[in-house]
Amino acid sequence: MDVSLQILLVVAVLILLAKAVGGLCHKFSMPPVLGELLAGVILGPTLLNIWKFPWLAGSQAVAGNHAISLPAAVHVLAQIGVVVLMFLAGLETDTKLMKATAAPAFWAAAGGVVLPLAGGAALVHELGFGWAESVFIGTVLTATSVSITAQTLMNMNRLRSKAGTTILGAAVIDDVLGLIVLSLVIAVEFQRAPNAASMWSGTGWVAARVVIFGVLTFLFGPRLIRWAFRYARHFQGPHISVAVGLGIAFIFAFAAEAGGGMAAITGSYLAGLFMAASPARDEIVGDVRSMANAFFGPLFFCSVGLEMNGRNLGGQLNLFLVVMAIAVVGKVAGCGGAALAQGFSRRDSLVVGVGMIPRGEVGLITASIGWTAGVIGGDVYSVMVIVVLATTLISPVLLRFSLPADDRGELVESATVAANVAEGS
Questions:
Q1: Could you report the per-residue pLDDT of 15-34, keeping only the tens digit for each?
Q2: Helix (H) or strand (E) holding 13
Q3: Whether domain 72-420 has CATH 1.10.10.60
Q4: Are 18 and 302 contacting, i.e. CB atoms less than 8 angstroms apart?
Q5: Taking 50 as the threshold, does the pLDDT of residue 185 lie above it?
Q6: In angstroms, what CA-CA distances link 313 with 319, 389, 420?
Q7: Which residue stretches of 190-316 are H helix?
Q8: 240-254 and 281-291 helices cross at what angle (nearest 10)?
Q9: How confident is the model over 152-182, as pLDDT tens digits?
Q10: Number of Cβ atoms within 10 Å of the Cβ of 130
Q11: DSSP class of residue 296?
Q12: In 24-130, where do the E strands start and end?
């Protein structure tokens, strides 16, 4: 069967089942994104293992002279999807409110890095693992990927709340801090190697890339976007602003990872954040939201569940339970405690902590780096993948219970107060 036909069939199954299970969750007052994740778990190796179905021909197909893996093709589409989702999250961010929550976002990110790193390393070491492996496991737990949190908050009309804006700001800072920690841990691990000096210089270059990208992006990003939209007015045809916006978001995503050494979703989020002040924002948001809700969102969240294999726990159940506990408690206590110290209410502090729980693709990337570098073994890597995906699965549920429907007024009020403070300053 032609590879394009197989991809079409797989994508159709993923999207339709994701929307069906998501609709079922919505019927029971649960976030639809949870159903989209569960759809992937159902289709993945935990239950059905869709890639073993006969009509997928062993999940391999040939296009021209090249063999293409269907899981890899779906993964690529899903990564494009998460870039679009975070672009939309940036567009949906209240920039005035973000300025008002800059300090809480920084301290929340710092707390969410220090506590999981220290707690994870100490507890895992107590289980008999070496310090190098223990510290790296703690490093994986510092990661945060709020794409699912952002989608859940958007579905619940809470993204522009004080807590929602703080979560998004803290996630960007967390990405930078986590990258620095990861670079240092890898550098220390290879210090005993003959090329230790070059490894340390490489670590310094990675940190420099992050700083350079951040400075250049905030200095020239808004100007570039204003210039692009000014010239886009001369183009003829429908949806020009949306096309230009998506193009810029993809360029920022590419630059963030290829040039800045950061996650691609950080670049797309910043692109959306800069465009939030553009006159074309409303037009872009409407079209991108439709694409995200109908295609990119279900595909990405279903693919996350599709990666999970609960059968791989094996004899590492104790490790899983310990790491899962610190993964949840570390973010809730670290991020939420920092927010509480910054004057947030207990409810908003809890939302910030819960919203920072998902590790998502950032955690998966970090774990794969450690596995490739030989810091952790294959069995530990499998456990870390399951922990990363499990945190992603439980976050929508915890958010739902952290934000019951009767608190809508309180959140709107807190957002309004913070916005007024930003205007006053």
A1: 999 999 989 988 876 778 87
A2: helix 3-27
A3: no
A4: yes
A5: yes
A6: 9, 13, 50
A7: 196-232, 240-254, 264-275, 281-291, 297-306
A8: 70
A9: 787 777 777 888 888 888 887 887 777 667 7
A10: 11
A11: I
A12: 60-63, 66-69
Residue 104 identity:
P
- Residue 214 CA to its chain's centroid (Å): 19
What are the distances in angstroms from CA 222 to CA 136, 253, 277?
36, 15, 9
Q: What percent of the chain has pLDDT over 70?
A: 82
b (16+ CB within 10 A) / e for 167-203? bbbbbbbbbbbbbbbbbbbbbbbbeeeeeeeebbeeb
Average pLDDT, the chain: 80
